[in-house]
Every structure is written in C-alpha cells, then in structure tokens.
Design brief:
The protein is of the alpha/beta class and 410 residues long. It contains 18 helices and nine strands.
Length: 410
Amino acid sequence: MEEVRIALRNVGRIKPDSIEEYIAAGGYEALEKARTMDQGELIQTIEETSRLRGRGGAAFSTGKKWSSAFASKEKTKYLVCNADEGEPGTYKDRVIMEGDPHTVIEGLLIGAYAVGAKECFIYVRGEYEKSIKLLRKAVKQAEEKGFCGGTKIRVVSGAGAYVCGEGTAIVNSLEGLRGEPRLKPPSMAVKGLHQKPTVVNNVETFAVIPEIVRKGADWFGGIGAEKFPGTKLMCLSGDVENKVCVEVPTNATLREVLEQFGGGVAGGKKLKAVQLGGSSCGFVTPEQLDTPIDFDSIRSIGAALGSGAMYVIDESRNMVDILWEIARFFRHESCGKCTPCREGTMRVEELLEKLAAGEGSRQDVELIRKLSGYMQKNCFCPLGQSATTALISALKLFPEDFDAKIRKEA
Ligand SMILES: Cc1cc2nc3c(=O)[nH]c(=O)nc-3n(C[C@H](O)[C@H](O)[C@H](O)COP(=O)(O)O)c2cc1C
C-alpha cells in the first residue's frame, strides 16, 4: 500500500508561507474553475460524483451539508472551518495547516462560493500558534492577490476546550458565549451562527476540495472505498515504532497503516489493542486489523473511524490504567451544562482511580458499567454520550483486566 497524498500533496514540498509556491504547484486554479461553474452544479459534483464525506468524525456528506445551506433563502450565510482539533491522539489538521495553509483557504473559498457565504471563520485550537500565524499570513496573501473576492475570512483562536470542536459549541464560542453545545434541531444549516444558515467542515475536508475540483470529482470518487472514497489521514501514537501521520486511500487496512507506516508495535512487543478514532471511541483487537479504514467497514466491526487517530496499546498494558487517563480527560473537559455528564464524568474517574490503585471491588466495576450506560443515553451532547464508549468497549473486550485490578479480598 502506497501513500496517496491529496490533502498533504504540498506538505514538505513547498514553503507554507509562500503563495507564489502554492500557485506554482497549481494552487488557486480550482477556485477559478469552481467560480465558472453554476453553484448547484458544483455542489452536485461534490455530493454525487466525488461522494466526499466529512473527515471530522461523523462522515456526513459534504455536498448534502452545502446544498441545505445553499437552498436557504436567507441572504447571510456562514462557513466555518473546524480546526479545533482537540481529540486526543489527533494531529492531522495541524500537519495540513502548518505545511500547506493555502489548500485550506482555497477549499474554504470554494465552499463559500458554493453555499453563498460572504463571511468565513477558521476556528483554530488556541495552542496551535504556528497554524494561526501561517493561516493569517496566507489569508492576507490571498486577499492581496485578489482570490478572496468579496469573501472575508477570519482566523479565530479557539477558546481552549475540547467541546468547542463540536459544531454548535464552535458557533456559541464564535458569538462570544460559553463554549457549550446547543440543542438540535434546528440544524445549523437552518439556524447556526447569529441564527443564520451555517456550514461547519473539518480542515481535512476543506483540504481535499481544491484537488477534487481541479482533477475532477470522478478521479476522487474512484480512489479507495466505494461509499467513503478518497483518502484519510491517520495519526499513529502510543506504543508504536513510528508516531506518524499518513494519508492513505480508504481501502487501506488498519494492519497496513500500523505495520507499513507505523513500523509495528514498539520494541517488537505483541499488540493488545488499538484505540481507533480518539478517546471518545472504542478499541479494535488484533484479529480485526484486516478491516479497511473506511467509515462503514469500521462501523461494521462495532468500532468508529472518528478522527482517524490510532492509539496503539501493547500487551504489557492494563486497560484500567488507560481508561483512568481517558476518564480524567473527560472529567476535565465536561462543560458542566448537563448533570449526567458533569457528575457522571467525575464519578467514573473516581471509580477508575480506585480500581487502578487496586482498591476497587466487583461492585465498583458493576457501578461503572451502569453509570456508563446511563451517560450514553442521558447526556445532552456527544461529548458526554461518548465519554464512556472506551470504557464500555474495554468491559466487553478485556474483562480480565478489570478482574486483575479488583482488591483481592473484595
Ligand atoms: C466533543 C466533540 C468535539 C469535536 N471536535 C472536533 C474537532 O476538533 N474538529 C472537527 O473537525 N470536528 C470535531 N467534532 C465534530 C464536529 O461536531 C463536526 O461534526 C465536524 O466539524 C463536521 O465537519 P465534517 O463534516 O467536515 O466532518 C467534534 C464533535 C464533538 C462531539
């Protein structure tokens, strides 16, 4: 399996702060081509021919999102690039933004033209100072060269919370409110930022748009898996030889990514599991490694592709220790808006701390199981609903790790 670089096509090849080098590599040709197309035709090409689905985690059809905003009669519409990248083990968007900020801006301008947005935002994780600096410079260069037309792009530093990466929470944050998710419906395509139709797409989603337009949606639709075509950026971390970010066609398997690009488990140890998709997702076992990385194949084995993070876990680890780390993350990141998440993440962390220290009982494990199920059903937003996904997955796949941690006389 070879890497196929679409989002990363220029990374490492051109200077990220040079619009001239981006243009010399074919940059902004797609924008010019897109602007000669009818908006409906452009959206249809993205939706039906390229069949592009969002790379932020939910894999929703990009064209469908664009077409609902386009269809709105409202005069003001907004387009937001989600560069908050808070999912643990995920660093792909940073690689794109630091290596080729113009591809994000070109993708965004094409999207703005398609939906009819005159104002766009790039909401960047606050810690990503280099990305913010490069994006601001790139926006200025694009404006000076006249590529923005009348479209305004603002690069905004994120508010410093994982939940702010959730589409409706970004919108709250952009309005200067607390970064908390909003109740849906109405969908963002109907009432988003300032109650106007708003489209939120991930950095990786925008980064492939210019090549789809330039080389043709047919070309993109012919790469990788039929129902989730194109490429996906995968980020390796944890007990793996090479902690790298690679872009592979979506019919590559998890094993190919781990072994070919990751160099296998660090120190030649045996693999125990891979946490796929980030801390909000479950585990994949070594027997499931021959599954292709496309969204639907991964879903069919009861896992989730999520952001494309692959956190590798070797045989020496006990899952309870890993789950305690994850629980700490979610307790810290719970925005506190709803009780099941605010209280639940705290209780789960306490119980896992007790278990990890060898002080827990079988009743504690049962309580964790009960709490996890309750949180999945009752939390207000996907943060709380997915805070215990890894826990539920580990209880099913690795019950012996919990047994090993239970206090002996308990
Ligand atoms: C708690 C939480 C955090 C999220 N963080 C991000 C993020 O950092 N970046 C991102 O693109 N999507 C994130 N998402 C998903 C977004 O809500 C949204 O689905 C995505 O930005 C849509 O873009 P796409 O259609 O291009 O995938 C998050 C979702 C949740 C529930």
